[in-house]
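User: Before I run my own analysis I want an independent prediction to cross-check against. Here's the chain; please return only the C-alpha cells and, at the end, one sentence I can use as a sanity check.
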Amino acid sequence: MSSMQWNPWHGCHRCSPGCKNCYVYYLDALRDRNASVVVKNKTSFNNPIKKDRHGQYKIPPGTVLGSCFTSDFFIEEADEWRGEAWDMIRQRGDVTFLIPTKRIERFAECVPEDWGEGWDNVVIAVSCENQEMADKRLPILLNAKIRHKLIFVAPILEYVELDGYLQSGEIEQVSVGGESYENARICDFDWVRRICGVCLKNNVEFDFHQTGGRFVKDGKLYRIKHCDEHSQAKKGMAFLEGLEKK
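Assistant: C-alpha cells:
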C-alpha cells in the first residue's frame, strides 16, 4: 500500500506545548514565510480528484493519503474550505485519508451531515505530546463517531500513560515520534519502550516513526540528523520487536 501527502491548506497557530518548536514554523521561516497565516493551497487543493490524460486518478486506489500535515484539518480558518475537502474524500472512497489533529474538540461541528457513524476511508489520529494533552483530547476521541482511531504521541515530551484509553478497544494504533530540527526536545527511548509495552498488553499496534533530533537511549544522548530520524527509529522498532519475541 503506497502513501502520499495531501495538504489542502497550509499554516497553523500554536495551541499546546507540542507546538513550541513546530516543524512547519521552522521550515517556513527558512523560506521567509509566515506559518501562522492559514492559506488554501490552490495548486494542490484538488489533488485527490485530479486525473491524468487517460482519465485515471493521479492518486491511485489503495493509497494512504496523509492529510493536512502542514496545518490542522479542523482549524477554524479552514471552515470555509472543509466542505469541498469532505466532498473529495467522499468521492475517493478507494483512498484512505489519514488526518492528524490537535483540535479533536472541533470534530463534531466539522463533519458533514452524512457522516453517520463515520466513513470507512477516514482515519483520525489525535496528537498528544504529554499526559495533560492526552487526558484532555483522548476522552473526546473515544466518544467520537469515528470508525478508525489512532493516537500520535508526537512530539513526545514525556512518558504518556495510555493504558486506560487502550483498554476501550477503540484505538487501532499508537505511533510515537520525537521532535525535529533546531531546539528539538529530548525523546527518551525508555518512554517509547514503556508505551510499546502498554500497547502489547492491550493488543494495540505500535509504531515508532522517528527518533527526533535529540534521542536518549540508556542514559546517553544522541544527536540525530533529520535525514536519519526515521531509519534510526526503525532500528528501535526492530529492538522492540525482538523483546516481544523473547
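Sanity check: The mean pLDDT is 96.
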